[in-house]
Amino acid sequence: MNANTTTQQRSGSRLPNPQQLVPALGEVGAALFKATGTGAIPPATVSLVQLRAGQIVGSTYLAILHAGNLRTAGESEERIAAVATWRDAPYFTEPERAALALVEAVLQPAPLGERVPDELYARAAEYYDDKALATLAMAIGQVNFFVPLALIGKPLPGRPQAEQWTPVF
Q1: Distance CA 154, CA 125 (A)
Q2: Amino acid 169: pLDDT
């Protein structure tokens, strides 16, 4: 049996529910959720940034989770699909573009110099005050906190919570 067949036949996460293994995970997840839900940035921007993070790290689970969050919030299929190509997609506001540029800068190696150069920070600061920038940083940190669990534990995308673990977002 090859690895693809084995993966397709999995009925749950490779890792048992991490919240049962590390009970403090629920508290940390709840605190991160609270930190991003201050109202300093729109919830849609948080979800767009977190969807892009899932795409960048190659986690189908995170991409499906955050695309679903956007659908539940009423976002259009065009906006959700265009997150991967946001730079030339006509669906995003300038503040959203600045947020998407920040998540890419944080998560991808910089070919030269800093990951978040002063110019990118200044661009984002045109749209976000200090509280909003800190909240945006927390939104990126929130999804990144769960990236190792998503990549190592590999929960099945789109499966009901009762069938496998689900991190608190």
Answers
A1: 36
A2: 47
Q: What is the DSSP track for 71-106?
A: HHTT--HHHHHHGGGGGG-TT--HHHHHHHHHHHHH
pTM (global) more than 0.85:
yes
d(CA 14, CA 75): 31
Residue 101 burial (C-beta neighbours within 10 Å; 0-12, 13-18, 19+): middle
Q: How many CA atoms lie within 13 A of 125 on its CB side?
A: 8
> Which amino acid is it at 158?
G
d(CA 73, CA 65): 12
Res. 165: pLDDT tops 60: no
